TrEMBL record:
Key word Iron-sulfur present: yes
A Gene Ontology term for the protein's cellular component: plasma membrane
Protein name listed in UniProt: Quinone-modifying oxidoreductase subunit QmoC
Superkingdom per UniProt: Bacteria
Iron keyword on record: yes
Domain 4Fe-4S ferredoxin-type: 23-53
Keywords: Iron, Iron-sulfur, Metal-binding
Gene Ontology molecular function: any one: iron-sulfur cluster binding
Organism of derivation: Thioalbus denitrificans
PROSITE patterns: 4FE4S_FER_1, 4FE4S_FER_2
Length: 206
């Protein structure tokens, strides 16, 4: 259990809803859910959710902290925004789902082998180095994230798409050597470090 997770349990003991309202993006909207189920019925991935959105909101209000934060439900959201468009109370459901996923990640409670969580980390690690996404390296990282053997199999399956991207100049094989990035990389790191400071200060003062 991470130190931040322990601190949050102590601070918001017996009130998971207040914890969500204080620490999750748009979390103060959770109490507005009237449990109509329109969000779950509108979601193209609805049948595959461990807990659909309105169930997640009820679990938050019921104080089921571990069940929510350790679930892979939030990571299923594809940001199609059907739920937001159709919600009769206009809850920002997509933002709440991503906020819960991010909060679970910060606390060290996100499912270890959740594919979306792993891809999000790979994307961030790729982006943060140069300020631009190196698509070739990102693709290879994604293919090989479950081991060398799986990486070879996936690469062979995708070879025609890769060759097509090279032919149409959508991908440059030379980017494997480093690729392009923003001009002021040190400035980028300063911005990111400051953002981390602000987020940590907010977490400590929440």
């Amino acid at each position: 259990m991470s130190d931040l997770n322990t601190a949050m349990i102590e601070k918001y003991r017996n009130s998971f809803l207040k914890e969500v309202e204080a620490n999750v993006e748009e979390g103060d909207w959770v109490k507005m859910c009237m449990q109509c189920g329109v969000c779950s019925g509108s979601c193209p991935l609805g049948p595959h959710w461990e807990h659909p959105p309105q169930e997640i909101f009820m679990m938050i209000r019921a104080g089921k902290r571990d069940e929510v934060l350790q679930s892979d439900a939030m990571w299923m959201c594809t940001s199609c925004y059907n739920c937001i468009v159709r919600c009769p109370r206009e809850l920002p459901i997509t933002h709440i789902m991503h906020g819960l996923a991010h909060y679970a990640k910060r606390l060290g409670l996100a499912p270890k082998n959740q594919p979306t969580a792993k891809f999000a980390q790979l994307f961030w690690d790729n982006l943060v180095k140069s300020g631009r996404v190196n698509e070739l390296k990102l693709g290879l990282s994604l293919y090989f994230m479950n081991g060398f053997g799986e990486g070879i199999k996936t690469s062979l399956k995708m070879k025609n798409i890769g060759l097509g991207m090279v032919k149409t100049k959508r991908m440059n094989p030379m980017e494997i050597l480093g690729g392009h990035g923003v001009k002021d990389k040190s400035g980028l790191q300063k911005i990111l470090n400051k953002a981390r400071e602000i987020e940590e200060a907010k977490a400590q003062g929440a």
